[in-house]
Amino acid sequence: MQKKYAVKMPNKLKCKILRDSHNAKLFSLIIILVVIGEFLVLCGFAQAEDGYRLWLRYDLITEAEKLSAYKTAFIAINMEGNSPTLNTARKELSNGLAGLLGTRLAFVQAITKHGVIVVGTPQSSPMIAALNLQKKLHAAGEEGFIIHSMNANGKKCTVIAAQNDIGVLYGVFHFLRLLQTRQDINVLSIISTPKIKLRLLNHWDNLDGSVERGYAGTSLWDWHKLPDYISPRYKDYARANASIGINGTVLTNVNANAMVLTARYLEKVAALAEVFRPYGLKVYLTARFSAPVEIGGLPTADPLDAQVRAWWRHKADEIYRFIPDFGGFLVKANSEGQPGPQNYGRTHAEGANLLAEAVAPHGGVVMWRAFVYDNNMPEDRAKQAYNEFKPLDGKYRNNVLIQVKNGPIDFQPREPFHPLFGVMPRTPLMMEFQITQEYLGFATHLVYLAPLFKEVLDADTYAHGEGSLVANVIDGKLDQHTLSGIAGVSNIGDDRNWCGHPFAQANWFAFGRLAWDHRQTAEIIADDWLRMTFTNNEKFIAPAQSMLLASREITVNYMTPLGLHHLMGWSHHYGPGPWIDQGRADWTSVYYHRADSLGIGFNRSPSGSDAVGQYFFPVRQKFGDLATCPEPYLLWFHHVPWQHKMKSGRTLWEELCFKYYSGVDSVRAMRKTWETLAGMIDDERFSHVQALLKIQEQEAVWWRNACLLYFQTFSKLPIPQEYEKPDRTLEYYMQLKFPYAPGI
C-alpha cells in the first residue's frame, strides 16, 4: 500500500492558494454568465417580463425570413440635426433597430448604398429638403409625418420626414411599430396626421401621492423628491405617450389643490416639463377656482372682480416663467362640492373666460369640464349638463374648450352619447373618456375599452343631418373649429407594470391611437397591441384578440345589462350595490334603476323626464319609443314591465337573467381560452392574467347574484330553472363592507 504524504504549508500560503483558486472559478463563472447574458439580451430574454416595457419591446425578430428581409432592407441611417427631440428620435430608431434586427446600423452622411433610412425635417436634413416632399409634408400637418419608399441618388431609400421635429419622433415610432408587428416595409407610402389637436391624459393624482380612482398603485409623481430627484420612470412615461401620439398631460386631480400653483410646486412641475419636452408632451394643471382666496389672500374669487382677474394674470405669468410651454388649465367647478363661479352668481362662461384671459397671451388654453349636476335640482341628472351649458354656446373666449364626458351620467359600462355633442356649434367641445376602470372592475377585470370608445365616437348626432358623428364634433370638422381636444382619465400608477392589470395597458394604448386617428378600428388596435406587447405568434393572437374584443360586452352583461346603470357600491364603487338608497338621491342606485313591482328602468321618454328631447331628430325618436329603442339602451330610457316581450322572445325578466348568466359564462370561457395559451408567452405575465381572470369570474358571479336577487324582490319571478342558483342570500351581499377599497 502506497503511503500518501501531505505537504505541510504555512497557513497564509494555503489561504492564498485557496483564495486564488476560488477567484479563478468565480472569474470563470462570471465570464460564462456575461456570455449567457449577452446571448439573452440579443434574444430578448434578459429582462424580466413584468410588463414594464409596455408595447415598446424591441426584441430580436426570431422569424428567419422576416429578419433576413428587414436586415437587407436597411443598412444605414442618414439623420442630421441636433435638437433634443431629434436626438431622442435618433436614439429611439437606433435602439429599436438594434434590438429588432440584432445589429446596430451605421449613421452615414449620404446615400451611397441601397437600404438607407433618411430621417428628419427639411430644416434639419439637406437631403430631405432636396427630395421635393413639400406637398406630402403639408398634408401631414404640423405634427404629422410621412414614411415613403423612394429613390434618391439612384438608390432605394426609406424616408421618415415631417415638418417639425416632433413629427419625426412620431414617424420613428410608427416605423418601428411596422417592424414590431411584422409588416411589409418594401413599398411604403404613409401620410399620417393627428385628427385632434390636444390629445391629453388626465391624471387624478393628489399631492399626497394618492390617486383618485387609481388602481395601479400610488402616483408616478414623487412631489417630495422633486425637483432634485428625477425618476427614470418620468422619461419612460413620456416615451410611451409619444409612441402613441399623446401630446399633453394634466398632472393633478380635477378635485384640485391650490397648492400646486405655488412657486414651491411650480418648480417641481417645471422639472417634469423639462423631462417631457423632447417627447412633445406638454404639462397642464388643474386650477382650483378658489385659489385667489386660498393661496392669494384675497377676500373673494369672483371672476368679475378686478383684483381676482389681476391675480390670475400674475399667476399665469409666473407659471410661464417656470414653464414657457405650459399648456393651460383644466377646471372642475361647481360640481360635487368644488368651488366655482356660481358661488358668486356668475356663469360657467364668466368663470372660464377669467382663466382664459390670463393664459391667452402665452398661448394657453382652458378646458372647462361640463360634469356638473346638483342634488337640489329636481331635474333628471342626465339632463343637467345640457341645461347648464347649451345656453352659453358662443359666450366663451376662443381659447376655451368645454370638456364633456362620453355619456350624460358618469363613465358607466354603457351610456348613450352625451346630448351636448352637436348642440354647441360655436364652442369647441372635447371628449373625456375614462381609461381607468372605475366602473369596470378596477384593475382586476380584463376589459378592453376601444369598443366603448368607438361606440361613442362613431355615434351619429344628426346635428347637421346624417353623418354628423361625435368624432367630427370633437375633431372640429363638423363646425370648422381649429381648436380640438380629447382627454382620457389615466389608469397609470407606480405599479411596476404601470396599469395594474397587464391587459389594462391596452386601454392606454387604444386611447392614444384613437386620439391620433379616430377612424382606426378596435380590431386593428388590439392586433397591434398584442403583437407589440406579447408575441407575433398567430396561435396566440387570434384567441387573445377575440377575448379583448368581446370583453367589454361581457362586462356590461354581468354588471349593467340592457341599459341599467349606476348599480355599483357606494363611494368606493367596488362591486354591486343596487340597493343603495341612502344619502343624496343622485348618488344612490335606486334613483337610476327605479325598480318596482311593475317593472324597471328610468323613464326618460317624452312621458317621463324627456331626456330624449335633448337629442336631435331622429335620435330622440328612436330612443324615445319603446318599440324602436335599441335594447342595449332600453332601461336607460324606459321603465319597462317585467313581462315585456323582448326581441329574443324572452320576457324582460328572463332576458335580464339571460344577460347576467351569459356574462358569467363568458368570463369562464375567457379563462378556458387563456389556459390554452400557456407556453406561448412568458410565464410571469401568463400567470398574472390567469390569477386575475379567476378573480374576475368570482366577482362576475357576485355581480350576477347580488343584482338578480335584489331585482327579484320586485319582479317576484323565479330565476329560470336551467340556471345555477345563487349560493348566497341577498342579505349576505347587502352586508358586505369595503372600507379600504382602492381608488377612493
Description:
With 744 residues, the protein is an alpha/beta fold. It has 3 domains: 64-192, Chitobiase/beta-hexosaminidase domain 2-like (Chitobiase, domain 2, 2-Layer Sandwich); 198-529, Glycosidases (TIM Barrel); 557-602 and 639-734, Alpha-Beta Complex (Alpha-d-glucuronidase, C-terminal Domain), CATH 3.90.1330.10. The protein is built from 23 helices and 16 strands. It has helices spanning 11-43, 64-73, 84-101, 126-129, 134-140, 165-180, 232-243, 263-276, 291-294, 306-322, 348-359, 381-389, 450-457, 470-474, 505-516, 522-533, 538-559, 590-593, 619-624, 634-637, 652-675, 683-715, 730-734, and strands spanning 76-79, 106-107, 116-120, 145-152, 155-161, 189-192, 198-202, 248-250, 282-286, 328-331, 365-369, 400-405, 429-434, 485-489, 599-600, 640-641. The chain has an 8-stranded parallel β-barrel with strand order 7-8-9-10-11-12-13-14. The protein has a 6-stranded mixed beta sheet with strand order 2-1-3-5-4-6, sandwiched between helices. A two-stranded antiparallel ribbon has the order 15-16. Helix 8 (263-276) links the parallel strand 8 (248-250) and strand 9. Helix 3 runs parallel beside helix 6 (165-180) and helix 16 crosses helix 17 (538-559). The radius of gyration is 29 Å and the shape is globular. It starts with 10 loop residues before the first helix and ends in a 10-residue tail after the last helix. The model is unreliable at 1-22 and 29-46 (pLDDT under 50).
